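Progress narrative, work stream C.
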Amino acid sequence: MSTDRPTAEANNLEWVTPGHPLFEALRRHGLERGQEALATGACFHSLAHDAPARLDFYRARIVDGLGKVLYERLFVVELAESGAPRRSEPDVLGNLFPAPVPDDLPPVAALPEVKEWLDAHCLTPFLDEVRGER
C-alpha cells in the first residue's frame, strides 16, 4: 500500500487515499492520540510583545467544482486583551521561542474567536482578490 500514486502504480500496490478504510483508521487513530496535545495548545515567548497575546491560524481555500484547490492562503489573527484584533503574517512563528505552559493561562487565551473580523478583514478581501484575477 502507498499514499503516492506513481509509487503504487509502479509497484502494483494499492493506492491509499482519503476515504480508504486504512487511511481513515490511521487518521482517526492519529486524531485520538493527539487530541490532548491539540487541546492544550502551545506557549511561546516573544520579544516583540510586552503583554500576552494569542495567535489563531486559519486556512482558506477556493476550490473548483471538482474539488481541486485553485487558491489557498494562511491567515494569522493576533488577539490581545486590550485592543482590536490584527492580522499578522504566518512568518510570525519565526520570532517565537517555545516556553513551558504556565499554571494559570492569561485571560487572552479564553477570548472568543473573532469570526466577523476574520471575515471582514481577511476572507472577503481574499475572495475579492481571486474574483479580480478571474
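Work stream C, second folded protein:
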Amino acid sequence: MTPFYYNAFEQGADLNLNKEIYNTLKNSHASTDNIIILCIGTDRATGDCLGPLVGEHLKSLMPMIPVYGTLETPVHALNLEQTIHDIYSKYSEPFIIAVDASLGIPEHIGYATLSSTPLIPGKGVNKKLPAIGNLSITGIVNVAGFPNSILLQSTRLHTVMTLANCISNALYWCFLEIQLTEQTTTVSRMISPVPIPKP
C-alpha cells in the first residue's frame, strides 16, 4: 500500500489523518478491545523522540487503550523485541498501531505518513529490528543522509512537536469516534423492541 502523506504544518492535517485512520480501523473491524498503540523511539535524541511524545500524550488522554512507549518508559532498539513478545503474550490477536519517526526527502519534512503495512523501525539508521504493526504511522522529522544518527540529534524540536501533536490528535479523535460508535451500538441493542407474542 502506498502511504498517505499529511503535512502536519497545514491546518486540518490532523483531521484528515483522523478520517483515514478511522476508515482503516473500521474496515479492519478493529475495536477498543484489541487495539494497541506502540510508540517507538527514545527521548535521548531530538529526532527520535516523536514516538515517546505521542505515547505520552495518548496515555494521559486515553487510559482505556494500552499504550507502549512514553517519555518515562520508551520502547527502542534495546527493548523492542521484548515489548513485542509481551504484547502478544498478554493480548489475543492485538491490532497494533505502530508510531515512529522517519527520515525522507527535504520536501516531506514535517509530513506524517499512514500505511496499512508493518513499520520497519531503525531502517533510517541502519538498525535491523523486527517489523511490527497492522497499521503504521510515521513522522518525517529530517532528511535522509549520512550519517543518519547525527541528523536525528540535530533535528528541530519544533518539527517533532508539530508532528507529535498532529498524530496524537488524529488518534485521540479516532478512538473517541470508535468508542461512541460502540456505545451507540450497545444502547441500540438494549432498547430494541421485543416482539409481542401473538395470542
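Residues 157-190 form the longest helix (34 residues). No further action is required on this item.
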